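ARCHIVE CARD
Drawer: 12
Card no.: 0347
Subject: one protein chain, sequence and derived structure
Cross-reference: see card 0346
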Amino acid sequence: MAAHRPGKRQLKREREAVRPYSRSQLANDQRQQSELHRQMTLAHLQWLQPHLPPDWRRWSQQVLQQDAADTRHGLCCSAVLGMDMPLLQRFMQVIPAPDKLYVHSLSDTEALVFDNAGHAFAARLQQAQIADWQTSAAQTTEFETRLRAVDATALHAAWQQFSDEMDQPVNLGQFGIQVFDAGLDEQRLVCISPITLDWMEHYCNIDTNCRWFNGVSRIMDGAEIAHTMSHGRD
């Protein structure tokens, strides 16, 4: 009996289907590829430099001239996976003023959210929604998401605007957010970009019909957008 061979339409549907990465895939990559992410961030800043306002351009020039040892831990002041945004927002409702906040994925359906003051919550997830949330005594030094409280206003405002402009797609968790602080009072540079793990198929994990699918960077002044730079198609 001859094997079933998919037709052209089926092959096209499979090729165009969105195949999002799981929470554990994203978390493992974030933990294991720190040096690669640092190099990508430097390349990203270099690409952004001509598009930045003068004060930010001077800051980026200084960052790009630093030695690797200086930028290894201080390049990006907050780095957040989009899949962790609901967890961060829930934590900040319970603990109003955390100084530094972290998320560690235990599995595809469990995550630990904690801060540097010793508060911790275990979250059980179901289809990216929080199904259960309870105080935890667990301790860990591992994390994929880190957020400074002083960056939270700019990050949440930029993310909300991004979500609204994308019309709340189901693949928001497949984007990553970086927040940079140039020491300009309340100003922050917030960069939101798709997470790419498969170099053969760059965007197989996101819906490329969405606006801003290639990412966007914004200068935020508090919760206000001061300057916008798009990445590729908008």
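Annotation on reverse: The helical segments are 8-16, 23-32, 34-48, 54-65, 68-71, 85-94, 152-165. The chain has a mean pLDDT of 88.
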